[in-house]
Design goal:
- By secondary structure, the chain is of the alpha/beta class.
- Helix content is 41%, strand content 21%.
- The chain folds into 2 domains: 118 residues, Response regulator (Rossmann fold, 3-Layer(aba) Sandwich), CATH 3.40.50; 94 residues, Orthogonal Bundle (Arc Repressor Mutant, subunit A), CATH 1.10.10.
- Strands 2-1-3-4-5 form a 5-stranded parallel sheet, with helices on both faces.
- The two termini are 30 Å apart.
C-alpha cells in the first residue's frame, strides 16, 4: 500500500482528497501542523506528496525545496495559482507535476497512480532514518542535519546505518566489523576504533556532539 501525504491548508479539500484516495487503497494522511512539515514527512515516510502552493508560514515552493534536501519522494503541486510562472517555479523547486484547482478527483487519482508507477516500478522505496534531527537517506547514502549535508565515506554510512537502525540498542564491535568488512577475522581491532573516531569528529564538526555513545566492554549505540 503506497503512502501519500497531503499538504493542504483547506481542511475540506484535504479531507475530500484523503477520503477519495483511501478508496483506492492508498494510506493517506494530511498535515495539520504547518510549522513542522518536515518532521511529519520523516515520521510518515510517504511515497508521494500532494503539495499546495499557498500555505501558512511558508509557501509550497519553500517546503518542496526543504523536502528535496532529504528525499526524492515524488511531489505533485495542487494549486489555483496556475499561471506559467508558478508552474515553472514548482518544477524548478523539485516538483514532478502540477494540477490546477479546481480539479476532477478521478484525474488526480490517475495522475497519482501514473507517477507512482513511473517512480517505483524499477526501484525500491526511498527510505530515510531520522534520529535527533539527523536524517540518513538510504537511497543516496547522505546525512543531513540542520539543512546541511554531511559528506560520508562508505564506512561512515555503514556504521551510521547499523547504529541508527538499532536506535537505543547497543551494537557490539564484532557486529559492526562484520557489517563493514563481512568478517571479524583478520581485521585489526584498532581499525574500527579509527573509523569510529573519524566519524565522531565529522559529526561533532556538524553540531552532532556525542551522537555515537560508547558502552564500555559492550559496543556503541545512538539513543
Amino acid at each position: 500500500m503506497y503512502k501519500i501525504m497531503i499538504i493542504e491548508d483547506d481542511i475540506t479539500i484535504a479531507r475530500t482528497i484523503k477520503d477519495h484516495l483511501s478508496k483506492w487503497d492508498y494510506d493517506v494522511i494530511y498535515v495539520t501542523d504547518f510549522k513542522n512539515i518536515i518532521e511529519q514527512l520523516i515520521q510518515f515516510e510517504p511515497q508521494l506528496v500532494l503539495l499546495d502552493v499557498m500555505l501558512p508560514f511558508f509557501n509550497g515552493f519553500h517546503w518542496c525545496s526543504e523536502i528535496r534536501k532529504i528525499s526524492k519522494v515524488p511531489v505533485i503541486f495542487i494549486s489555483s495559482a496556475s499561471d506559467n510562472m508558478n508552474i515553472v517555479m514548482a518544477i524548478n523547486m523539485g516538483g514532478d507535476d502540477f494540477i490546477v484547482k479546481p480539479f476532477d478527483l478521478h484525474v488526480l487519482t490517475a495522475k497519482v497512480g501514473a507517477l507512482l508507477r513511473r517512480t517505483y516500478s524499477f526501484q525500491g522505496q526511498v527510505n530515510i532514518i531520522e534520529h535527533n534531527g539527523a536524517v540518513l537517506n538510504l537511497s543516496d547514502a547522505t546525512l543531513t542535519y540542520q539543512n546541511k549535508k554531511i559528506e560520508l565515506t562508505k564506512n561512515d554510512y555503514k556504521i551510521l546505518q547499523l547504529l541508527m537502525e538499532n536506535n537505543g540498542k547497543v551494537v557490539s564491535r564484532e557486529e559492526i566489523m562484520q557489517h563493514l568488512w563481512e568478517s571479524d577475522n583478520f581485521v585489526d581491532d584498532n581499525t574500527l576504533t579509527v573509523n569510529i573516531t573519524r566519524l565522531r569528529k565529522k559529526l561533532a564538526e556538524a553540531g552532532l556532539d556525542n551522537f555515537i555513545k560508547t558502552k564500555k566492554g559492550l559496543g556503541y549505540l545512538v539513543e
